[in-house]
User: Fold this.
Amino acid sequence: MLKAKCRRQLPRRSLTLACVLLGGLAAASCSEVAAVDLTSITTTNNSTPTSAATSGSGLPAGSSSDTLADTDVVNPLLEFQSQGLSSDEFHNERQRALSSCMQQRGWTFEPVLQHSQVPEPRTVGELRDFRESFGYGLYTTLDFVDTSGREAADRNNEYHESLGADEQAVYRRDLNGDVSGEGEAPVAGSCEALAEGALEVPGTDQAVMTEMRNLYQAAQLSAEFLSAVDDWRACLASRGYEIDREAHPVDLVDELAFADAQPQELTDFELAIAVADFECDLTTKMPVLHRLETEIVQELVEKYPEWGS
Assistant:
């Protein structure tokens, strides 16, 4: 029997736009991996289903009264926040604004652009295809690494290091207000702060984002959603995966990787558990969270009509 402890809530593939906009809160597309604080996992034989289970709602394990079509978006909140922008588009527009600002202040600065070759699933059908092809994108997408952004970042660092000490201090003040703490917000008036507001989408409106976080956290703690999470766990148990309330299947994939599994064994395991996870999610917590997110979007649009479409 394998045991694993939760090491993170988000897939290593990339930080999706939802993760960027919500600042670490596990939005539903980040909840491709985790929707609630999901810390240890045990699994039975992962290829032999156990006896049928009954969900917390009284329905057979993996059942939900809600259904989603392949064309439905997985994350209504993400679509609302980004107004349809992809992670790459959102990141690159901010980088271009940052570069322009720094250049206007007299510095040499390249935008650190990203061009992800890994698909970014937005609809249910796209997410199904992603799971079947890449699993969680943890150990199945190593050939898709984009190094162009890293090279631009290296050149920016080299330029910074070529400056004298006094110039470096001014450069850092122009960049972010000379903020040194990891995750610390840039100082108002700095180029990073100005770039954050360059895109006019709900995800850059602090009032909207604060209220969205509060509403989303309340939705994740609702009895309805927690019951759906139990249904999801029961469904996975019927597939041979026993998962505690405070855990998620991705941790078991990591556990196998840390045990030095052979690459093919690791890939096969990740694909199998990711597909099982998707199929159980689709009939349990995904449609419930989709409806709760849709209600949150409606509430936000009513309060902030400027963001209505």
Confidence is low (pLDDT under 50) at residues 1-64. The beta strands are 2-5, 40-43. The two ends are 50 Å apart (CA to CA). The chain has twelve helices and two strands.
